[in-house]
Design goal:
The protein is mainly alpha-helical and 237 residues long. Among the domains are: 82 residues; 77 residues. 63% of the residues lie in helices and 0% in strands. The longest helix is centred in the middle third of the chain and has 40 residues. It is elongated.
Length: 237
Amino acid sequence: MGDHMTFASLKERLKSQPRKRKVGELYRWLYRNHAELEADRLPGEMWLPYVEIAMEHGIPIGTDKRSIQRVRKTWRMVCLAKARRAQDEEEAERTRVERKEKNSIRPVAPSRLPADWKPEFVEPARSEPDSAPVIVHRTLSEARVTSMVTTDQNPRASYDRIRAARIDLGRAQWDVTALKEKIRLNETNGGRAIAQEQTARLPALEAIVAEKNDVLERLMRGEDVPDQPVGPTEAEN
């Protein structure tokens, strides 16, 4: 009972005298200049020149051994905080991308379409209904000629392939856009190593975009293009 009363009175006193958690000036300076320090300072390099720069900026720190140790410890805390922030932002971006992809595949009600919206492909109207199939007895030479025709005579099949190629190209383009955004976030928040790994993957994704764009253009020209395998997206990687 006595302990409960003691903590209750302490809680009331803290409410009347709010405490403020202050981040040290050294921590703020290292956090603010993290990107420059990480880029300029070599691994294992002495901290003394950078401590002198901090002192020129008005940071209350000395050049003795204990002060240098304090700088090293504070720097590790700053690097950890930056890495956590970059990870949190990357997870938030991944969630946003996944949510946008889910929303993009939902069917849109006709009432929500713009007034000037037109479908990308309209099947040609038929003036007369399809008649009953006619059985034609072909000669052997006619059958050979027919088997050599490789152009797609089915407009619906052509439309489906063009539509699939557009979707495939859009996904590849989005993979490039999403990866560039991740690189920007990591470079901004001190995740330089992660950004370099992601940058190394860009050329391969951009090559995939160029390949899928070429396939779409060939289909639009009516060329016969072999079916393209669907590879994993950047989100799946």
